[in-house]
Amino acid sequence: xxxxxxxxxxxxxxxxxxxxxxxxxxxxxxxxxxxxxxxxxxxxxxxxxxxxxxxxxxxxxxxxxxxxxxxxxxxxxxxxxxxxxxxxxxxxxxxxxxxxxxxxxxxxxxxxxxxxxxxxxxxxxxxxxxxxxxxxxxxxxxxxxxxxxxxxxxxxxxxxxxxxxxxxxxxxxxxxxxxxxxxxxxxxxxxxxxxxxxxxxxxxxxxxxxxxxxxxxxxxxxxxxxxxxxxxxxxxxxxxxxxxxxxxxxxxxxxxxxxxxxxxxxxxxxxxxxxxxxxxxxxxxxxxx
Amino acid sequence: xxxxxxxxxxxxxxxxxxxxxxxxxxxxxxxxxxxxxxxxxxxxxxxxxxxxxxxxxxxxxxxxxxxxxxxxxxxxxxxxxxxxxxxxxxxxxxxxxxxxxxxxxxxxxxxxxxxxxxxxxxxxxxxxxxxxxxxxxxxxxxxxxxxxxxxxxxxxxxxxxxxxxxxxxxxxxxxxxxxxxxx
Amino acid sequence: xxxxxxxxxxxxxxxxxxxxxxxxxxxxxxxxxxxxxxxxxxxxxxxxxxxxxxxxxxxxxxxxxxxxxxxxxxxxxxxxxxxxxxxxxxxxxxxxxxxxxxxxxxxxxxxxxxxxxxxxxxxxxxxxxxxxxxxxxxxxxxxxxxxxxxxxxxxxxxxxxxxxxxxxxxxxxxxxxxxxxxxxxxxxxxxxxxxxxxxxxxxxxxxxxxxxxxxxxxxxxxxxxxxxxxxxxxxxxxxxxxxxxxxxxxxxxxxxxxxxxxxxxxxxxxxxxxxxxxxxxxxxxxxxxxxxxxxxxxxxxxxxxxxxxxxxxxxxxxxxxxxxxxxxxxxxxxxxxxxxxxxxxxxxxxxxxxxxxxxxxxxxxxxxxxxxxxxxxxxxxxxxxxxxxxxxxxxxxxxxxxxxxxxxxxxxxxxxxxxxxxxxxxxxxxxxxxxxxxxxxxxxxxxxxxxxxxxxxxxxxxxxxxxxxxxxxxxxxxxxxxxxxxxxxxxxxxxxxxxxxxxxxxxxxxxxxxxxxxxxxxxxxxxxxxxxxxxxxxxxxxxxxxxxxxxxxxxxxxxxxxxxxxxxxxxxxxxxxxxxxxxxxxxxxxxxxxxxxxxxxxxxxxxxxxxxxxxxxxxxxxxxxxxxxxxxxxxxxxxxxxxxxxxxxxxxxxxxxxxxxxxxxxxxxxxxxxxxxxxxxxxxxxxxxxxxxxxxxxxxxxxxxxxxxxxxxxxxxxxxxxxxxxxxxxxxxxxxxxxxxxxxxxxxxxxxxxxxxx
Lengths: 289, 183, 758
Fold this sequence. Notes:
The complex is a heterotrimer of chains A (289), B (183) and C (758).
Chain A: E1 5-7, H1 12-22, E2 26-29, H2 35-41, E3 48-51, E4 62-65, E5 68-72, H3 77-82, H4 84-89, H5 91-97, H6 103-106, H7 111-117, H8 124-130, E6 134-139, E7 142-147, H9 148-151, E8 152-154, E9 157-158, E10 165-172, E11 178-185, E12 196-203, E13 208-213, E14 220-224, H10 236-246, H11 261-284
Parallel strand pairs in A: 1-3, 2-3
Antiparallel strand pairs in A: 4-5, 5-10, 6-7, 6-10, 8-9, 11-12, 12-13, 13-14
Chain B: E1 4-11, E2 14-21, H1 26-33, E3 52-55, E4 58-61, E5 74-76, H2 89-97, H3 106-119, H4 125-131, H5 143-159
Parallel strand pairs in B: 1-5
Antiparallel strand pairs in B: 1-2, 3-4, 3-5
Helix pairs in contact in B: 2-5
Chain C: H1 14-19, E1 34-39, E2 46-52, H2 54-58, E3 62-67, E4 77-78, E5 85-86, E6 92-93, E7 101-105, H3 108-117, E8 119-124, H4 131-135, E9 158-166, H5 169-175, E10 178-186, E11 198-204, E12 207-212, H6 217-228, E13 235-238, H7 255-265, E14 269-272, H8 275-279, E15 286-295, E16 301-311, H9 319-328, E17 338-346, H10 361-379, H11 383-390, H12 409-419, E18 430-440, E19 445-453, E20 459-463, H13 472-484, E21 491-494, H14 515-539, E22 546-549, E23 552-555, E24 558-561, H15 562-570, E25 577-585, E26 600-611, E27 618-628, H16 635-654, E28 685-691, H17 713-725, H18 736-743
Parallel strand pairs in C: 1-14, 12-13, 16-17, 20-21, 27-28
Antiparallel strand pairs in C: 1-7, 2-6, 2-8, 3-7, 4-5, 9-17, 10-15, 11-12, 11-14, 15-16, 18-26, 19-20, 19-25, 22-23, 23-24, 26-27
Helix pairs in contact in C: 6-7, 9-10, 10-17, 13-14, 14-15, 16-17
């Protein structure tokens, strides 16, 4: 690795001071599971690495506040996947967090880091989209809320301004019953980067929210208000029509090593149909979401 | 000029204080500065787990942790598993089942398994498979490693358990979604 | 007593492995070492126009930037089959990853910075990276013709063409009721040992010392001695146990380079490859094999006609030998009246392929056994019955001029069938497949062992085998313990130092239990002979009256443990009893392979799969593997090796392959995009078993093992997929996308060719 210097601020104020002072020459470090790889392969060049994990104001946990579940900006995947409230009310997110890399990766990788890295294949992105998450972004100028659908711009690009950090991610608690699931396509059953990621939430009024990733520059959220997807008596032609429309935004990369466009598009459909079925089943069956 | 950071950390129960290069990983420092070569280097991208250590009670790929990040922390490596020269139950189980062939992945497997058993003292086989999925082995086909972990867990049941409860995890059988498994 | 042969005592070296004290090459530190990093260009092939080291030499801590110009001229070359590989690329780089310079510095950081600062001026050249491209008459030549003087093929990218066969093919073709033909491809895959190759070299007086993760220490010693013009006795090779090798650490790679550098700087130098660099250093030969087999209606084979092209790399390494040996037995373990085999090593601008578990056989067996399965389906015969009908009988000279079938192979097949419940239909949605694999053991060999029985009855065994995980140390300890009546914990095995351990030709071809095992056994017998003399002297009887068997000395109806005789016999001066053993298999120059097979490895694998038709996912529900091992010297280690081989075979069957870009560069270097099986990718149920008829040439009737269980996996899985879905797939890996495309052929018509991913 090219050498850099290391700072470990103990307050948000100090952290912003460092980030503002060094600009693009500074890299904020949370879990390191993306950054260290990039520092090593040279895709990121940093003069200063700013370790965020000693900041006194850091939120590493998960708590309820004002009808929202607040996941701290420092909360790691292991804790998200294991949290009973997330497993119950935000099942797709728990399932997504549980497949980010291996146990060792999940013990370090933060949800905030995953969305800031903004890989089109980010496992947690589809779930956050279907749940309508809000990103709490804090900088030296203050705090603002960014809807998750506005947060992802392109591969590696987010709506964060320079010097801003994601200090929390909030999920509105579901109103009424819903069922959700996260599915993905990989090259093996062991941990892998996904060639298609997909989350689906089905509301008890039959509407479905679908979000999918790794088939375009950013993950996409689509909604089916018609209820056709969930309707057991709908014809497969009617369902295909709705799906065609919902999945029309997919534009998989031609150059990917992981899967070809034709396969990705086909799997997107397969996963979408499976996800709707599972999510619909969860919406009606038992006290699960 | 390389920036250095003074760090203090407890490694295998022993306090170590030393300056480290800011860009050196915990793996580098363990192997090169502290002479603990039991932890291995292989993929350097967090895929193979050969570099697995416990950091503050959690299993991590030490190739993705800067040494400076470990300042003030506690590290357990494979060299710290045996207490006073006596092999741990897990290490003994690995010997008994023939889990170590070439042995290169074994330090990482042992630490990952140690972490798994601390959280899930009585894992079912699928939990062991998943818990060790971050530790690649090319010799053994995993079978004897998994058997060793299950055997150690069974042995621990008789002794009342070993290892710290590093992280409370809800019993999967109690969560509602255990009734509807993803297909 | 634990530790006797046939038991499973704890692995010798096991304790060090579970405590982190096992020292691999990268764990060894020498004083005053310089760290080395390699410099490469991002091309499959390039002309080197100039190397500017000025900026690199200004990096603090950099001591040397070494290029081909720093070597003796003309640049020395080495290689086990052809001395074609230059110590450093000269004039031209010939594959993606071919080093053009090496930087040595006080720290690894400085070496990395130095390597990044070396300015190489180069011109990218057209490269051939596929069989078709390499065989095109207009293709650029990979090997410079002067390196192949007098070789009629020097003007082509075919390094060698091998022809084997027997019988009258034309007549047999007329007899066949059915001919089944297919072409099967096997991808480039890499060994991916968890320990990357590691090397050190240090001046040692007026000689040199080398540390390497090498499987063949004596062979390396010869190579270094020759290149540096040193007597063998002045070249010392330390070969710590490799952290996995699988053939990829058999032959010299960067040791020669380091030796020259060490000599130049007068200090130790050290190079540990990154995982990515290991992918660029070693791989298996890829292949296209066309099999044409003729059968009678009842399934009897009448002929096999095999034409194979193996894509080897830019330098021969031992790749051509894998083509020869793998193809020689490609007609399979069957009785086949007429056979014609043509196999070519095709050079390419790719990573030099080398030995890899199976040694050229998996590629052929993928084709040959898939072909058998297709024939079974076409003939309406049970694939199991087709194998049993044609399998060579024990003692049958199924390859004229070579060792006859040395096992009751049908027993392995029948056991595998029984274990997977072949006669009971599979559950709905599941399919079953079965395949057999055969590989020749070593055709020549030479192993020496020295055994020292110490005064207290403990034992030291010197054996030059490399224990890379297969458990050779333990086997030798068991043999010595059994023969000399010592507890296995009191046996120390010394390996891996050419200054101390006598000659072993190599660790390969699953030979060590047989060759070195016999050498150890003979050394023990030598000791037993000396103990007979000792006992005869002590008891004043004739030597012929003394029996020394394993741990006991017997004269008439009196018996003593060896230790007691030893204590009395050594007397006041003390001492020890030294035994020497030599096991040799001579070459036969007129034989197509240079020698007959010492033994055969035979395996039958049967699998049951479920295929998700929508996604192409294959789940191996059941995996049964049965190997014919003669005698399992250590059943636990045998099981570990066979199951490990099975999972490794599932790797190339389901997920492993190099992905090259249009310019021949490797796109998926490293662990993120080169997938190998994890603990979550296992068959849902696996069972391994052995057939032990004591019919091997090794100690106690053993044969070599540990490659067999990898050989037939791919065709067994493909057969099961065909059984479950009806599709026949003739390419590997059977990735989800590949299976999906076979199941949904209309879907890929919109794609550009380059967008298709295997």
